[in-house]
Amino acid sequence: MTKILVIDDQDGMRRSLVILLRKEGYSVEEAENGERAITHLDAYRFDLVITDLKMSPGTGLDVLYYVLERYPQTNVIIMTGYGTVDSAVLAMKLGAFDYIVKPFKNEEILHRVRKSIAHSEMKREITALCKTKDGEITILGDSDATKALIAMIRKIAPVDLTVLIHGETGTGKNLVAKTIHSLSFRSGKPYVVINCSAVPENLLESELFGHTKGAFTGAIIDRKGLFEEADGGTLFLDEIGAMPYTMQAKLLDVLQDRTIRRVGENKHRDVDIRIIAATNRDLEQAVAEGTFREDLYYRIKVTQIHIRPIRERLEDIPVLARNFLDDVRVAHRKPDINLSAEALEFLLRHDFPGNVRELQNIITSAAAVAAGPVITVPDLSLGFTNQLFDVSKGTSREANPATLEEWEKDIIVKSIERNNHNLGKVCSELGTSRTTLWRKMNKYGIK
Among 150, 213, 288, 446, which has the highest number of CB atoms less than 10 A from its own CB? Predict the structure, then answer.
């Protein structure tokens, strides 16, 4: 579950932001200054830190320096007033992920949070699923499908063509795109990612193309878009099938001319980029339905890669499970944690509608709740994305109250007791969202 630390010495502003983020299902801790924030940073592993710039003791820059030095995988968003924008820009040059000017609208801060989390998930996915060897990134897996995928990547990576990656949610499309970039001649240049489905339509044009000062309300400085940020490197357009129809025409112009124009500006700027796009949708059907431009479809499908779902490459599950356990041993300080043979066999019979991402969630959740050094079948139950599963058949079904359902209820009750009824900490420990936890509590009659 995504964990966020909010730091602000203005109690009202801090509490409002904490409530907003918790309603979105995030696990949130708070601190009133940089000095207090250090205690939280050393106690938990955060995906994102949102900090005010001016505080005492311990400023936002102090927090930024500490995070960059100790926890480089954690992104930092700086909050600032209008009069200190220059300091926020400096913070971004030093390594902050983004900044936002107060007062801000809820949708604006949520957009920046989602953007940061998507970026963090991509980094974790790459770290979890690949190892660096001799300057190359090797995707883990023993199946013939994975070996064929690696062979295809090696062929197309050095050829500077547009690539369309197709696969179900959670199959590792980000990882494949990053691998292509890393094996190309552009590897020393930026690799920039945007999830087209996560950005509101009214912000997408500015996000991609940038804007000039005064182009719209809130545009207080000139800002590069992602096309310019990726200049010389690769721009990964994730979930391109969700891109609004009006934006598709503007993207087509960039692919044809390799020039962009910032919002509010008349001049065109040249960009030298490779485009990699990904989708879990059937774009041919979308073209037939009139929701995706046919000319853009043929522009982006110059080279295609299809990633098969994990249920079709079972040989990869033990390899990936062991790799996720390696990460868990460090993150949860459980150096001896292992997976029982029965639990692995159970996983091999599971459909995995959430693919590799679901497997990672299951392993992480099970390791958190396991009472001993070995993960057993009952420990796996909270990580499943949909229904519980029949141990004998490994298929989705209504759970027998005498088996996994009772185990799941027991796990939740024990976690609530262990965390003194702090549901935020329970969600963090079990790796689940607050909404899912409430639903399960109501289901089992847990007060």
Answer: 150
pTM: 0.60
Shared-domain flag, residues 426 and 316: yes
Does pLDDT of 347 surpass 90? no
Tokens of 188: 């020393």
pLDDT of residue 389: 40
Domain co-membership, 155 together with 271: yes
In angstroms, what CA-CA distances link 426 with 74, 359, 376, 385, 445?
21, 20, 20, 17, 17
Residues shown for the chain: 447
pLDDT attached to residue 383: 57
Range 130-133 contact pairs with CB under 8 angstroms and sequence separation of 24 or more: 130/175, 130/179
- Indicate if 69 and 181 belong to the same structural domain: no
Average pLDDT for 224-237: 93
- Distance, in Å, from the CA atom of 247 to the CA atom of 328, rounded to the nearest integer, reads 41
Backbone angles phi, psi at 342, to 5 degrees: -65, -40
Taking CA atoms, 374 is separated from 56, 75, 196, in Å, by: 45, 32, 40
CATH of the domain at 70: 3.40.50.2300
CB-based contact 53:88 (threshold 8 Å): yes
CA distance 228 to 208: 8
In tens, the pLDDT along 46-86 reads 889 999 988 888 888 888 888 887 887 789 999 887 656 67
Q: Are strands 136-139 and 130-133 parallel, antiparallel or unpaired?
A: antiparallel
Provide the domain count of the chain: 3
d(CA 360, CA 369): 15
